[in-house]
Design goal:
single chain, 5-stranded antiparallel sheet, 1 helix, 2 domains, alpha+beta, 25% strand
């Protein structure tokens, strides 16, 4: 991997046989050279929001699994 020296707060990363990307700190984006796609970086506040959302999703998934297990147990063990 080669990293070219910074030029106007931009860094170009060249990975042989892969993608060429440019980290544009002026616009806070990652540019993918082979496709021309730009992906914005998350701000610090967005990182915290995303982390909290992922925690809530994990809890919701565990609750859904618990309800499914509870339902399947009752289906397998009907009242006598």
């Amino acid at each position: 991997m080669k990293i070219k020296p910074p030029k106007n707060s931009r860094y170009t990363v060249i990975i042989p046989h892969a993608l060429q990307c440019c980290i544009d700190l002026n616009e806070d984006v990652l540019r993918i050279g082979t496709t021309g796609t730009s992906v914005p970086f998350l701000k610090e506040s967005e990182l915290k929001e995303k982390e909290e959302m992922e925690k809530q999703q994990a809890v919701s998934k565990k609750m859904a699994q618990a309800v499914e297990l509870f339902d399947s147990w009752f289906d397998a063990n009907p009242d006598p």
